[in-house]
Write a structure and sequence with these properties.
By secondary structure, the protein is α/β, with parallel strands linked by helices. About 25% of the residues lie in helices and about 20% in strands. It has one domain: Glutaredoxin (3-Layer(aba) Sandwich).
Length: about 160
């Protein structure tokens, strides 16, 4: 199974096939609105606006597994992100990235990166860069700011 075989939930609950993103460079991020890394939304939005016309997409998956830092409904999270950070990239329903209820997407992403040390997601704002063919190129820790990803994204475009 590949990335494009996976379905995720849109904020309204509809299924979204990741095959809709075939041919695009993706940055997949698990996020939270009450985290020390939450200001990274600003940098993510700058990257998105800079490269969206070249086939770049950011897929935002809110996650409340780390310190309960993504409280609230999907609508509240979306409203917060739009009002505070003027985000315009795609945000999906809240998910789990570890454990027995983890999203199929995150099972795939972690498997593609392999290795015991990188198997679980450690915190919010872990980022995965995906090439135009759906391959996981690199995983970035939450401490890696969006600005530091600019060159890596440009290489894939």
């Amino acid at each position: 199974m590949g990335l494009y075989d996976i379905k995720v939930k849109a904020q309204n609950g509809d299924d979204v096939s990741l095959s809709e993103y075939k041919g695009k460079v993706l940055l997949i991020v698990n996020t939270a609105t009450g985290c020390g890394f939450t200001p990274q939304y600003e940098g993510l939005e700058k990257l998105y606006r800079k490269y969206k016309d070249q086939g770049f997409e950011i897929l935002d998956f809110p996650c409340n597994q780390f310190g309960s830092q993504a409280p609230g409904t999907d609508e509240q999270i979306n409203s917060f992100c739009k009002l505070k950070y003027d985000t315009s990239f795609q945000r999906f329903k809240k998910i789990e990235v570890n454990g027995s209820n983890e999203s199929e997407l995150y099972t795939f992403l972690k498997k593609e990166q392999g290795g015991v040390l990188v198997s679980s997601i450690k915190w919010n704002f872990t980022k995965f860069l995906i090439d135009r063919e759906g391959n996981v190129i690199e995983r970035f820790a939450p401490t890696v700011t969006p600005e530091k990803l600019d060159e890596k994204i440009k290489e894939q475009l």
